[in-house]
């Protein structure tokens, strides 16, 4: 029964391109018409049942365990084939049922009070610092870079990202800045060192906090940058500027009113905030169960409509919205290539299964931007209508 259901699902799903699938019993079937063929083999008789019951989770776990292998280990080709067809509306009954269940559970999955938020952050960001050194740029920017031309290095593109955000924030010397989700400190240190700001960065990751503090001391910036191991909801006072890069994906839709209420309350009357987040170009959805289990528990990539609905309830002006399309795909490609080149070191830190998981995460994320309607939003917010210039000329002069 399970073989038949999976066969029917693949017949409905693979419309463009071609998938050649070797089944556990040795039979081979092909799906789709034309295009470059992707060869996949299942090595476990239980896999068809698991895929039918939870496609995203089962395929990701099977790749991690080696019970599903891809010809030439062509993850980009395989995931591009699957995600590209899904983005074009191709689906199957098991996928529809799974998505319906995910949407029904999404509020529970995104419930992130302070204690739960700490656990979720630790799951991903408190991995060995040596792991992130393998693939991030020198400044440890773990978010979308800004490629002004295709030949930019990762270091150039990440510096350009920070400079672009600083221009949007209209930073002046002496301004107080709150950095929500400060990571390893790169943005806060840049705003203090290059723009003369007084920065408070907050993170829930012990590993990030330790490294950010050490960096501030090493650069002689401890008098202008403070990093706290705390939740943004526990910060008091007001700030001239608020910046949040790559943290909003961890907030969860049930907490959006709380989040934007804190943004409003923590901004001075003429303050400006910049929220940089991954987003989806289709209606509200849910998070892959594989991502929730292995990469970002509690995480969710929002539709723009979900964000704007909550901003509109606050006395805040949306002064600018910018959409970055393929910038994150290029960032992830750099990360993947760097990780792949140093995978032996990662294997010594963890094991082969972890390395397969990490490659799957990086490639699935990249192909979600290239083939499946994922993008990046930047929301510039203010309490006053005239807090920022009336044209975008100041960003590109």
How would you sum up this structure, described in words?
47% of the residues lie in helices and 20% in strands. It has 397 residues and is of the alpha/beta class. The protein has two domains: 2-109, no CATH class; 114-396, Vaccinia Virus protein VP39 (Rossmann fold). The strands form two sheets. Strands 7-6-5-8-9-11-10 form a seven-stranded mixed β-sheet. A four-stranded mixed β-sheet has the order 2-1-3-4. A hairpin with a 5-residue loop joins strand 1 and strand 2 (28-31). Helix 1 (2-13) crosses helix 2 (47-53). 43% of the residues are buried.
Could you provide a short overview of the structure?
With 397 residues, the chain is an alpha/beta fold. The protein contains 17 helices and eleven strands.
